[in-house]
Amino acid sequence: MCGIVGIVGSRPVAPLIVDALKRLEYRGYDSAGVATLEGEILDRRRAEGKLINLETRLNASPLSGNIGIGHTRWATHGAPVEVNAHPHFSSNVAVVHNGIIENFRELRQALEGDGFTFTSQTDTEVIAHLVAKGLRDGLEPIEAAHSAITQLHGAFALAIMFGTEADLIVAGRNGPPLAIGHGEGEMYLGSDAVALAPFTDRITYLEDGDWVVIRRNAMTIYNLKGVEVNRDEQKSIGSALMVDKGNHRHFMLKEIYEQPEVIGHTLANYIDFNGDKIALRDMGDNQNPLDFANLDRLNITACGTAYLAGYTSKYWFERHARLPVDIDVASEFRYREVPMSEKGMSLFISQSGETADTLAGLKYCEQAGQHLAAIVNVRESTIARSSHNVFPTLAGPEIGVASTKAFTCQLSVLASLAVGAGVQRGHISREQEIKLVRELSEAPRYANDVLKLEDSIKALAHTLANKEHVLYLGRDTNYPLAMEGALKLKELSYIHAEAYAAGELKHGPIALIDEEMPVVVIAPYDRIFEKTVSNMQEVAARGGQIILITDPRGAQEAGMDGIKTIIMPEMPEIITPIIYSLPIQMLAYHTAVHVGTDVDQPRNLAKSVTVE
Ligand code: M6R
Fold first, then answer.
1. 304 C-alpha to ligand 1 centroid (Å)
2. Is the per-residue pLDDT at 542 higher than 90?
3. CA angle 395, 400, 401 (to 5 degrees)
4. What is the CA radius of gyration of the chain?
5. Ligand 1 centroid, distance to 306 Cα (angstroms)
6. Fewer CB within 10 Å, N- or C-terminus of the chain?
7. Which secondary-structure segment (H or E) carries 256?
8. Rounded distance, CA 190 to CA 71, Å?
9. Residue nearest to atom 11 of ligand 1 (CA)
């Protein structure tokens, strides 16, 4: 998604803005731009593609000026070409924007009627013209900015600069987040605190509906009604976090390798290892403590990989806690008119905590009076702040667009919650709790062992790189994991992949099987292993090329010569979805590297999807 940066500084800001934009690259973008104020002239440089193109422009034709705004654009309205890149100008006004202005057509029509000429296909340009119109109508810059913001419908975060004001940026949010950074004689703004980490760790987050007047030495925040409000300054951990690749070729690989550690950190937050028991800590509103014993239904809502973490947990909650679970992709959930149970709870899972579809689902449940819980990786996020109970994952910043460590940390939280729910609901005895807790605590060690399989997985990945289609099969918790495998392969390598519940294959998709079709089968040796092997034999009989991910017992019992295998260590059943995620991720990663795609920022994708 688009990234925003602004600096009211005391030194030339263009290079600083580009530096901050680089820290927002992980969000995904397809063009970028910077505008600064030089004397009384607003000037800008914009470029299609990666920031390196913008830097080349800036090197050839530098921008001076101590105040500026910058942007990375993920195209929504209009192609990713220079003319649509931000900042957008209207006479003496420059604007950068993240989100969608839903009423831009009406506004554009009216502005064109008022004599304004549009030079782009974007929704953003209406904002620049609206502000310029306010100025033309005699408003002061701050009034004109506020007036424009109040005319916008939709989800947006934006920043506005004026050719007449060397000490003023006005910014606002309605949906996507905005962080204000406090410096010494300089103020900053950014789409997140990570962008501002080189400059400051003193951060104030705007709340929904807030808009802010930023000057070199001060800022004033107002709410939607124009009333001055106080928002706390926080010490961000963004600056303490490493946002580089270390020795790894890609952020994704680094994040895959971080998993033993971050799974351990995350589990330690929910498990009392000394007492061998689940200790469900949350950082939410303690007025509404979470009590699984009184629930009669849990509905889980999320998108993409987070949805698949939720899907996995449906098996855990139903099996270990006898708690019925509905699981929905967020974009479908809110339009499904779901009847809500008075004793139900709604759980939202999101790495970023800002995903617009998931947030919309949360608002729907809030209106229905549901108890709201969230699993997020970004603690300051909107979803976290809107929930009664918050269960953070401790994955650290995830920069690769493909979710890896956030997924396994979500699974770690969900497994802990499911066991905790089982205990609270009286379906897990103390003896079983001790066993399950000890099994969960083994997850980091197994994850570490599995990372050693990378070379053999890499060799298998090369056999996928020239394929057009790949199927993934699994049963039980390995079915959502099969879906995650297919999602990872698609988004990273652009190879078409589909996942099926292994038993479903014979009901149609088996027609796809021929000698050209690779089929990845996820099947640890467990109580349903035999059933999965039967499905695998159906594939083999039709010439399909099987890659079996199993353990030594599974490899032996499968009794099939000539199939490719990834042999995992034998491990307790409850942690298999967490640990089997790693070969799935490495397979997709190495296939993509071999194909030659942009692993950390696959085409068309954004890290944080703040539009519906
Ligand atoms: O930030 P969120 O967890 O809410 O994001 C949800 C999805 O957009 C995300 O998981 C997406 O599917 C990933 N790119 C998958 O790797």
1. 5
2. no
3. 110
4. 25
5. 6
6. C
7. helix 251-257
8. 10
9. 304
- Show the domains of the chain with their CATH numbers: 3-247 (3.60.20.10), 254-441 (3.40.50.10490), 448-595 (3.40.50.10490)
Query: Catalytic site residue 314?
Result: no
Using one digit for the tens of pLDDT, what is the confidence trace for 474-531? 999 999 999 999 999 999 999 999 999 999 988 988 888 988 899 999 999 999 999 9
Q: Which is catalytic among the residues 22, 254, 488, 607?
A: 607
306 lines ligand 1 (CB under 6 A): yes
Q: Which atom of ligand 1 is nearest to the CA of 305?
A: 10
- pLDDT tens track for 372-397: 999 999 888 889 989 999 999 999 88
Question: Is the CB–ligand 1 distance for residue 401 below 6 Å?
Answer: yes
Number of other CB atoms surrounding residue 559 within 10 Å = 8
Residue among 1, 74, 305, 377 whose CB has most ligand 1 atoms within 8 A, to mutate: 305
Atom of ligand 1 at shortest distance to CA of 351?
Answer: 3
The DSSP bridge pattern shows strands 344-350 and 371-376 to be parallel
Q: Taking a C-beta distance cutoff of 8 angstroms, is the pair 458, 561 a contact? A: no
Q: How confident is the model at residue 244 (pLDDT cuts 50, 70, 90)?
A: low
Q: Strand order in 187-190's β-sheet?
A: 41-48, 31-38, 67-73, 3-8, 187-190, 179-182, 202-205, 233-235
pLDDT at 242 over 70: no
